[in-house]
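If your schedule permits, I should be very grateful for your opinion on a structural question. The matter concerns a single protein, recorded as an amino acid sequence and a row of backbone structure tokens. Could you please explain, in whatever detail you think fit, how the structure tokens follow from the sequence? I set the record out below, with my sincere thanks for your time.

——
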Amino acid sequence: MSQSEGQIGEVIQEKDGYVTVKVQRHSACKKCGACDFGLSKNKASTFELKNSINAKIGDKVMIDLEGKDIVQASILIYMVPLLALVTGIIFGSNFFSDLDINEDILGFISGIILMSFAFVGIRIYDKKLQNYDSTKFTPQLKKIITDVVSDDENDKQLL
């Protein structure tokens, strides 16, 4: 999702100032498999979002995520653990080089341990954001849609 183009979903539940929105995966995502690590055959995702536009059950809504938040989340989720892994491998290989044990294996183990700490840190940061009711890295309801064009129809119009 980008700043100018959101995704359209349907409100399926409303509770305590929040709505659950069911979104069909975008046509560009059909073969990606990143959602649920490619294990899910479900073609829809659901999001629980603050009902800032007073949407009701059955309404079609546009949700969007700021482009800068997508980049920041990607860096946080992918680059931080990768850097931790590489740092752990380099540090572990150099630190354990004086021992009479294979430094490559110890470097690999150090990398895995440091990467695990990075994932734990990311998880703690995520929980902290949730506790403060932060909207960072969370799609936002933008508007209620009256005329809906499906992704497949939209793709045909682009051709």
